[in-house]
Design a protein that fits this description.
This protein has about 160 residues and is of the alpha+beta class. It has four helices and four strands. The protein has one domain.
Length: about 160
């Protein structure tokens, strides 16, 4: 194989795969589910329920400015993540994986924001009875899991010598 750094062989396929998986899952849900009607997947624990979120995580809203502010924020975050990726050692695995999940999730939700003023498609509904977590999507799962992994990677990294 050519001199493709290991970090690139980790980052780019995960990044692209996460964006595609998020996009396809959202379009399938939009084409097959009515709005706000829960559909059991695993009993009452996991349901798919089509919702649109014009805000950010956990329905944080900035009113009419939400779409523009969250679009700019996503672009800045993707830029920061790419910058971190470029500074990652060529032989690393965990950090490029974490960064790919975060960037893929950010781009997945950004594409929704740009595609429609209705907002980001959320559909994964987890909980028991009336005790439910916030409805989320594949992109959100990537951002969350990637952020947790990145925190662990950075926390375990030895401090640079002074």
């Amino acid at each position: 194989m050519t001199n493709i750094p290991h970090r690139a062989r980790v980052f780019w396929p995960i990044f692209a795969g996460w964006v595609v998986t998020d996009y396809v899952s959202k379009r399938l849900v939009e084409s097959r589910l009515p709005l706000h009607v829960p559909n059991s997947i695993v009993g009452d624990w996991v349901r798919f329920s089509l919702n649109y979120n014009t805000g950010a995580a956990m329905n944080i809203s900035l009113g009419d400015a939400s779409r523009i502010v969250f679009t700019v924020t996503a672009l800045l975050m993707i830029g920061l993540i790419i910058s971190m990726y470029l500074r990652t050692r060529a032989d690393e695995t965990a950090q490029p994986l974490a960064l790919a999940l975060i960037a893929g999730g950010a781009l997945g939700n950004l594409l929704d924001r740009l595609r429609s003023a209705k907002g980001v498609v959320d559909f994964i509904d987890v909980g028991i009875g009336d005790s439910r977590f916030w409805t989320f999507n594949v992109a959100d799962a990537g951002v969350t899991c990637g952020a947790v992994l990145l925190i662990l990677v950075l926390w375990r990294r030895p401090a640079p010598p002074e």
